[in-house]
Automatic annotation (TrEMBL):
One of its GO terms (cellular component) is cytoplasm. One of its GO terms (molecular function) is ribosomal S6-glutamic acid ligase activity. The keyword Translocase does not apply. Keywords: ATP-binding, Nucleotide-binding. The lineage of its organism: Bacteria, Bacillati, Cyanobacteriota, Cyanophyceae, Nostocales. Residues 135-325 form the ATP-grasp domain. One of its GO terms (biological process) is SOS response. It comes from the Bacteria. This is MvdC family ATP-grasp ribosomal peptide maturase.
Amino acid sequence: MHSSRDVILLITHSGDFFTIDRVAEALSKKGAQPFRLDTDKFPLEVQLTAHFEKSKSYHTLKYGTRSISTQQVQAVWMRRIWEPELSKELAPQFRDACIRESQATLDGFWDSLKEARWVDDLECINAGQNKLRQLRVASEVGFTIPQTLVTNKAEAAREFFQQVNGKMVSKLLTPLSYGMQVTNSFFLYTSTVKEEDLLDAESLRYCPMVFQEQIPKQSELRVVYVNGNVFVGALDADVYSAAKVDWRKPGVDVGAWQHHELPDEVVSRLKTFMGKFGLLFGALDFIVTPSGEYVFLEVNPVGEWGMLERDLDLPISSVIADALLQKNDEG
């Protein structure tokens, strides 16, 4: 018999499969009721109604054959929020208004769930996505970080290129939206910068960029932190990354990920770092240098981990389910 408050809301989009399915399955095995909300299907296929009365307020949500009330929701897994999928026949001025109103309605829905346990709280996620704050906090807790320059000044970028002896990469401070079409991959992934790339660096005045020294790699790590638990996958730089600066570009072979154990001091710093952001979940990227030094690159508060569970049989989905089912006063 289900209690009245045992629904776990999984916030994602319709193109999300492996990870969301694994977490839903783990929750079901533990006796909870997962309810998947594909944010791109609101408002066309999801009905959301807010009720405000004198003594109470609540929302009801209907998606497909299932409906829930906010009063039933024990916890929320914030995986992804996507823009609504609307008809292309909608005139642009109506389309923009519909998207704005839909997002404002969802914001009200999230607010109505403030008593639930969140993995993670939206404010913590938004604060945690600030890459410059990440670097500052990483340095404060004792992580080694790459020399970094953020600038919209062409001359500063050229000087930094000389300072790091021409070993430089560029990246963005914010993620691109999934629908953004960019023909120049220089702006898409972490990219090596060559001297000729800086010839037209005057375009920086339109858009600042992040430049970092290129760190020599023995291996690249994806470290998944879940409520004090740490899971690690490593890619051997010699085998895999000779031609690629960013492993997130398409084409990581199944089986390329290997198990890796972090030193205790790195785990300790990692827990302190995540605590400072108030995050129960994060996917972090590190480089291990040929001399064995661990260099922090960044954390994504809603980052990917499915490949580690798939290739290394790490029980990440089960631990996420445990984090969701833990009572707020326990943690």
